[in-house]
Amino acid sequence: MASSSLLPPNPLSPKTLTPTKALTLKTTRRRGRTLTRSSIQWNRKPEVAGKIPRVVVITSGKGGVGKTTTAANLSLSLARLGLRVAAIDADAGLRNLDLLLGLESRVNLTALDALSGHCRLDQALVPDRRFPSLLHLLCISKSRSSPKLPLNSKTLLWVVDALKPSKDFIVIDCPAGIDAGFITAIAPADEAVLVTTPDITALRDADRVVGLLECDGIKDIKMMVNRVRTDMIRGEDMMSVLDVQEMLGLPLLGVVPEDAEVIRSTNRGQPLVLNRPPTPAGLAFEQAAWRLVEGDTMTAVMVEEEEKPKRKGWFSFLG
Ligand SMILES: Nc1ncnc2c1ncn2[C@@H]1O[C@H](COP(=O)(O)OP(=O)(O)OP(=O)(O)O)[C@@H](O)[C@H]1O
Ligand SMILES: [Mg+2]
Fold first, then answer.
1. What stretch of H or E contains 126?
2. What global pTM score does this model have?
3. Is residue 148 a contact partner of residue 116, using CB atoms and an 8 Å limit?
4. 39-67 in b/e burial notation, b at 16+ Cβ within 10 A?
């Protein structure tokens, strides 16, 4: 376990954003309603669990559930905690991570340019505007049709191995589906964050992906439940987080509510975690980043809203 003192100081991180204890955020369902309660103490740096550099793939199976949003917000949160991060957009041709990080105009060279000898790998790394020494974006290619060199598991492994000495975290944004792009993106990863929305199609695909990750030797898989709507859970039109957790059987890294600010921040190229005051989704991503660093998880708990009246006599005896 790496000590927090190994982390470079982060002058940009306000002291008020540093918890003193592992975050505890519980999701509580009361009669079909999901509530979140958190006790966050903010005056210490997180301790990195496990061996650094850590290579984390953000995956889902189903498209459009929030992988890139999660990759952008986790990467930025990690950098703000003083960790050196490389965010790799492994979606060749349909890249979006540059847009979400507001770096689209700076992507001139890609990993494929480095692999084909046109530049060095460090020249293809795009420094973030806010944390230039801590966060770098690496795009695999600019268009799906152009690459002369095929990108495969072997070449991505080479790229990740080359980045490892200078990074604490390597976050890989995986393409949707389970075809060649997915196989390539998961190859260098030691751990995975599985993003899902609480709907049956996303859950079926997520379940399939868990099997494939395990086959690939990735045993450390955590789940992010995105776009949760308490009003729909209350109306029993959406599965609760607990239901999702029971279906997938994975440890819970975070629960992100549906939040219009996500779309606004996507369009501005300003990840949500930078918003002050924080929005509910921004806070959820920030807390998830803390848990990721510390190897922590959260729990989803069911609690009845009203205590049932105590039964007397035989009924109480029979339960
Ligand atoms: N919590 C949220 N609240 C509201 N909108 C969200 C939330 N999370 C993601 N979105 C929106 O959902 C859309 C898809 O998100 P994103 O691009 O991150 O998904 P993805 O899984 O990476 O998609 P793809 O599979 O195509 O790569 C975006 O328009 C994004 O703004
Ligand atoms: Mg994406």
1. strand 126-127
2. 0.84
3. yes
4. ebeeeebbbbeeebbbbbbbbbbbeebbb
Query: What is the SS3 string spanning 147-173?
Result: CCCCCCHHHHHHHHHHHHHHCCEEEEE
Helices (H) and strands (E) in the chain, counts: 11, 11
* CATH number of the domain where residue 172 is located: 3.40.50.300
Question: Which tens digits make up the pLDDT trace of 131-171?
Answer: 999 999 999 987 655 555 668 999 999 999 999 999 999 99
Contacts (Cβ under 8 Å, ≥6 apart) of 169: 52, 53, 54, 55, 56, 75, 78, 83, 84, 85, 86
- Low-confidence stretches of the chain (pLDDT beneath 70): 1-43, 143-150, 301-319
pLDDT of residue 313: 37
| Predicted pLDDT of residue 3 | 39
How many distinct structural domains can be found in the chain? 1
Q: Print the domain residue range for 110.
A: 51-305
Atom of ligand 1 at shortest range from CA of 260: 4
In a domain, 13, yes or no: no
- Return the best residue to mutate from 69, 104, 267 for the ligand 1 pocket (most ligand atoms within 8 A of CB): 69
Q: Is 15 annotated for ligand binding?
A: no
Domain annotation covers residue 282: yes
Is position 5 within any domain?
Answer: no
CA-to-CA distance for 195 and 197, rounded, in angstroms?
Answer: 7
